[in-house]
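Board notes, transcribed. Complex of a protein with adenosine-5'-diphosphate.
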Amino acid sequence: MKRKLSNQFLRNFLVIFLLTILATVFAFALLSFASGLISGSLTKNRYPASAIIKEDYRQIDASAVVQNGGGVQVVDREYRVVYSSGLDTIGKDKLTAEEFTTFLTESKSKPYHYDILYHPKGEFWLIVTFPTSIRLDFSLVYNKEAATGDFMRAGWAITFAVLSYILMLALFAFIYSRITAASITVPLQKLCDGTRLLREGDYSARVDLRLKNEFAELQNTFNDMAARIEHEISLRKKSEEDRRRLILDISHDLKNPMSSIQGYAELLMKKTGMTEQECNEHLEVILNNSKRANQLLTELFELSQMDSPEFSLKLVRTDICEYTRQICCELVPLLEREGFKYEFDILEESVLAMLDTDRFSRIIQNLANNAVRYNPKGTLVAVKLTVQNNQAVIDFSDDGIGIPAHLADNIFKPFVRVDDSRNSKTGGSGLGLSIAKKIAEAHGGDLTLCLNGKKGSTFRITIPTT
Ligand code: ADP
């Protein structure tokens, strides 16, 4: 790709190069044409020395020259300026032979035009001076009578100059074509390298072109795309990891009750001469374990149902304050039975929210069950409902053992528990908070663990009001 583009540029610049040579030839032709035009129209050429010279210099009429900004001087054989009218660039009345020669030889380089004519009979030089307006000194003079050697040398010099000029142009065209091609091929190459890295699975690949043109736009789009792919891949990896962990946790959690059921059932079948009390004890273990397995499967089913695209809530406009008050009242028997203290602070006014009442009550019931399950008797359970920024905020807190801060986010993931051994005793499935959070999110709100530095744990449910 690089070579093709470079060659394309080289071809383009070759065309430009040829056109430049053509343009140069044309420019020379134009210059000599302009030179001719200028010399025909300038004042100095309308009043040459030959037009006003007289044998007796005293009869010379310099008025037209002087009126047009020029000057006339007459220098005699002794180099005395015997006549002067108008512009005078000699500036002296008497010159030495040397000074007069210098004046004649240097007159070409001065910003004046001198027309100098010698009158052999009158024995004087007539000098007509005009200030130069624009001088174009370009002219190609060819004289057949010139010495052959001169002609050859001049020919070589001109050929050398023209060839050098053409070579210089060709070199510039080549260098410029390479630079221009590089300004495209280098960023393209970098973008290609980045794309190749992406294709090979390096999603951290980014391109840094340090440009401000369209390539920079392409670079930003490429980098955005790479960042998005990287993010998606990391999400996919994470969800794959979560799925693997979930299956492992499910099998681990189901294995214990199922093995226990199997063991006790076999014992009942094989062991003879058991007392009725022994039989009942074994049956109770089987019942408890099957209940535990059943609860785990029910909650798992509920969780996966909420993840499915068909899941929807049956939302009804409800007074969330009134409804929360009602749920709290239903919690009182449980709290009293378990020896817990309680405190409810629910806003008196009516606050409307779209609620699936059955599911919403599950959130608070799960939190209450956890508070009772994981905290000692005498723990204070408090429910407070306020409205902040068009959201009903329900703080469900206890002053019990609390949840470590580093688990604040992960505690809502399935099967995450603070202490696994504690759970086998309490019978928790590790899914309660995940289900509660999903219900809150399905309502457009959230369930979070507040790290407020207070003793115990505070869960915050937010539900948008209408
Ligand atoms: P589980 O069914 O095990 O209760 P949850 O998802 O409801 O699962 O809770 C996850 C873990 O969070 C629990 O195992 C427990 O360790 C901890 N936890 C939840 N609520 C409380 C609380 N109020 N006080 C102390 N620990 C709690």
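The first helix runs from residue 2 to 41. The CA atoms of residues 113 and 130 lie 5 Å apart.
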